[in-house]
Design a protein that fits this description.
The chain has 7 helices and 10 strands. It is of the alpha+beta class.
Length: 206
């Protein structure tokens, strides 16, 4: 699988004005653990290895750090669990909470480029709530797509996040149109709160 390094994936989202939870990237080095520990300041944070691993949580390569006394132990644990992978570095990301949806896109041999929206986080696997459209699509069509989902009924209907989600999906469409070498983008979770931001992203190249 040709996975784009996570730090590059985050920068690509930012280039297309898809908001990302603030982060630092610590490049892999001989003093990797020390450099990561020095890079952690305001708590809580999420640390996640930037490596050729798709399911980081299952591999033990993600930790949330709430307390200063847990920093060294959790950094060491993530680094230890990442040894069997090719490691680019570590992402230290601001801990964000809020309602979790997912947005994404993939290229289909039969239909072309597809855009998707649905429940994110742990609900992505349990509810299987996803709505699709084939691009090009208008903003009105994106709004209809979003309103077809349980995610809209649960998280969005009585709140003000709908324009932010439509903007993020529209920018993701531009990203896919401009970067034909990209096969798939999965932004999950995309947090809905006062500030809507991507919490994690996976980008697969052809």
């Amino acid at each position: 699988m040709n996975k784009l390094p996570d730090n590059q994936a985050y920068r690509l989202l930012e280039r297309y004005k898809i908001p990302v939870a603030s982060y630092k990237f610590i490049k892999f080095s001989k003093k990797f653990a020390e450099d990561v520990i020095k890079g952690i300041s305001d708590l809580p944070v999420v640390i996640k290895i930037d490596a050729d691993v798709v399911h980081k949580k299952n591999a033990g390569c993600v930790e949330i750090i709430y307390k200063k006394e847990d920093i060294k132990h959790k950094v060491d644990s993530v680094i230890k669990n990442s040894r069997k992978f090719h490691v680019n570095g570590m992402l230290i990301q601001k801990f964000v909470s809020g309602d979790e949806v997912m947005i994404g896109s993939k290229r289909d041999v039969q239909f072309g480029t597809i855009i998707m929206f649905g429940c994110g986080g742990v609900l992505a696997d349990t509810i299987k709530d996803v709505s699709f459209r084939v691009i090009p699509v208008t903003s009105n069509e994106l709004e209809i797509m979003i309103k077809e989902t349980k995610a809209y009924q649960i998280f969005i209907e009585n709140k003000m996040n709908l324009p932010d989600i439509i903007d993020a999906i529209s920018n993701l469409i531009r990203l896919m149109e401009d970067n034909v070498e990209i096969k798939e983008v999965d932004i999950n979770p995309f947090f809905l709160s006062e500030e809507c931001v991507a919490g994690d992203v996976r980008i697969i190249k052809r």
